[in-house]
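Q: Give me the 3D complex with pyridoxal-5'-phosphate.
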Amino acid sequence: MTMADPTHEGRFGDFGGMFVPETLVPACIELDKAFREAWADPSFRNELDYLLRTYAGRPSPITECANLSEELGCRILLKREDLNHTGSHKINNVLGQGLLAKRMGKTRLVAETGAGQHGVATATVAALFDMECVVYMGTVDIERQKLNVFRMKLLGSEVVAAESGSQTLKDAVNEAMRYWVSAVEDTHYCLGSVMGPHPYPWMVREFHRVIGDEAREQCRDLLDGVPDVVVACVGGGSNAAGIFAGFADTDAVLVGAEPAGGAAVGRAVPGIVHGSKSYLMQDEWGQVLEAESISAGLDYPGIGPEHAHLAATGRARYEPVTDAEVVDAFQLLSRTEGIIPALESAHAIAWIAKAKHEFQGKSVLINLSGRGDKDVNQMMDILG
Amino acid sequence: MTGGIESALRARRENDGKCLVPYLTGGLGDNWLETVMAVADAGADAIEIGVPFSDPVMDGPTIQEANDRALASGTTPQRILDTLRDADIGVPIAVMTYANIVYRMGWDRFMNELSASGVSGCILPDIPLEETRDWTAAADEAGVETVMFAAPTSPDDRLPRIAERAGGFVYAVGLLGITGVRANLASSALEIAGRVKAITDKPVLVGVGVGTPAQAVEVSEVADGAIVGSAVVQRMLDGAGPEGVAELIAEFRAALDT
Ligand SMILES: Cc1ncc(COP(=O)(O)O)c(C=O)c1O
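A: Here is the predicted complex, encoded as structure tokens.
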């Protein structure tokens, strides 16, 4: 199968759609149109490619992990999104949306952020394009990701605390959407993952498919084919969607690593929140439950609608990993390869460390979505 | 067939009156039903009952807090509907909630429950025209009026489709923003009211940003009436009780009647 154009209705099988207040519908329709036009316009593509190369530092390399491979008994390859400017995959999407927002004549970006990586990427691109920037971040996340809060402010962005509900990513999305409802005429909502109303899940996946397209090429040289397994961590699912897009039409096993405390697919209950229908952690009455994860970037009770579709059709599998397994994996990669991963990305490492028996002798491509500098303080507290 | 809400609002309009539809959060305090009854007696033409949702993206701090408090006290959609089922309120009721609350129970079951509880209409702010199919099929079957929203950003060519699908009334969103009391009525309130009135004979009420009797009067010069939410809910949060809330409604009624 391929990861297809969900049409102007934004459907991925039973999932997706555009469940937003009427006020925002014209903006979503306009965005669908603007993105379709831009994506088919060679001058837009060239400008984005240029920025991805000269500003973000693409293509990102693939690193063969000799030491970790020996330890786990499978051939481990890392797609190094941690080496991008701003330290994660998030910049791919934000450069795309920033260029598009400029093309649409918007003067301000509003974003939500969990770990702060998407907020930092948005603040960065706003600085580059001379746009105003407002970032909503849960009070709990502001506390555990202080470094990124400071970076956003340094970059000229306003950081607003989302104090409602669980005070994490879900609430930052609510606040960013409320802000967008009030400022939709001059503001682009720069959503940070493959979630939200159409066209976001599709558009954000397309802006990240550069990860999968590059990796496919690189694997052709390195492996003379495709890897046996492709694994990525899943919060909303943007880094996973990006790398899956390069391999969905192959035989590679696709795996999304979910935090056990935020396993939306694991529970497989469909719901509607933040603009789309997907799997959602909720109680028997439809109240959204609070996710609980060591990593702020995965602390989200939902998942992008295309992942729900990939799960429902069996094309990808989604596996839970616990916080304790993540802490071990964080140290494992640091120790064996000299690479400190983001806590989010450490979920993907943790999954293969746990599932290694199933894949002995196989090649496993891991999307290393971000670097761990932002998490070092938190890990110092945890490891004592 | 014209439903209970539309009939009541048309009746008010035919008598040269202006419609008043207050919004109250269901399950907020033990005496919320008494407050609903008092509000009906004080001159409401119809009443919106909010069924709390954990993530209400169209709502500002006042209604968010009301939601949180009601949920913390153990309110469920079923409990609110059961309470309404046993009550004789005297004016038609619309339930306002978000898509997931209905979807979780099932479109058909929820609409049937509304009907069985004597609720006339349903308002779902995160279901735009593009996503109405499952909901309206179930609502039409159960005889529930489907209120639809028109916003200041809705282009002209959308408005007739919105009005055509609307049951009960067309909910014209008064401003670019979320629910909450503002110092002044936004100019967009009169604009959207005028644009919707120009293309439909159905009742057109303005809500969001109508918080004082004077603002309700101002907007009703163009619209058929007003929806008053946060100002009412704030009274409930402040512990005003049924009489205190009814006093506020009486002020709105008096202003609209003079
Ligand atoms: C490094 C990193 N990886 C992954 C994520 C999760 O996002 P997604 O699931 O959209 O890739 C985040 C989010 O903050 C992140 O910072």
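A quick observation: The two ends of chain A are 47 Å apart (CA to CA).
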